[in-house]
Specification:
Helices cover 33% and strands 23% of the residues. It is built from six helices and seven strands. The chain has helices spanning 8-11, 39-53, 55-58, 66-81, 134-148, 163-168, and strands at residues 2-7, 32-33, 85-90, 95-105, 116-125, 153-158, 172-173. The protein has a seven-stranded mixed beta sheet with strand order 2-3-4-5-6-1-7. It is globular and about 45 Å long.
């Protein structure tokens, strides 16, 4: 996965489409906010994300599924509080796709004037519902929400398959090196 960023000025050029307008192929893609009733499906889609990314980091061979319960608890909190933006597209049976975003307050600086950074935590489409414009519609909804919160930058990690969509929406290579540490 590669790290991508979109600065506020770049994001303004996303086309200005609102929730529920036409997707990339002209399909009508209604997007709505997730509710408590969507929690099990959100967990299912998040598990698909990790399975598709592959590798021991994203899908460890231990088979420990305890993280799914922990995820359901956290999602329930965020759906109730509105602390994250969780958007979904309905399928025939369950959810077709979802996207999750949050805003993080960091210290302001010359490269981050107000310190607010939008984070796209995950965009997932069920394999049976791909290539219908769902991810594009979900991302436009998240970008509108980030704009309303006056974020200075939006960050995400892109899969190889998702990278063309994000670049088309104005995302570019991130200038900061990304490292991580686990205790």
């Amino acid at each position: 996965m590669t790290r991508r960023t979109a600065d506020r000025d770049i994001r303004r050029g996303h086309g200005g489409r609102e929730h529920g307008e036409h997707g990339e192929r002209g399909d009508l893609t209604p997007v709505r906010e997730a509710t408590r009733d969507d929690i099990a499906e959100l967990v299912r889609l998040r598990a698909l994300l990790f399975e598709n990314l592959g590798g021991a980091y994203f899908d460890p061979p231990s088979g420990d599924t305890g993280w799914r319960h922990a995820l359901a608890v956290v999602l329930e909190e965020y759906v109730a509080s509105g602390g994250m933006r969780i958007l979904v597209v309905d399928g025939e049976r369950g959810l077709a796709a979802c996207a999750v975003g949050s805003v993080e307050q960091r210290l302001p600086g010359p490269h981050l004037r107000n310190g607010r950074v939008g984070l796209v935590i995950g965009v997932v489409t069920d394999p049976a519902h791909r290539r219908r414009g769902h991810s594009r519609s979900l991302m436009r909804g998240l970008l509108d929400w980030f704009r309303e919160r006056e974020v200075a930058r939006v960050d995400l990690y892109a899969s190889h398959e998702g990278e063309p969509l994000y670049r088309d929406l104005g995302f570019a290579d991130h200038p900061d090196p990304a490292l991580y540490w686990r205790p």
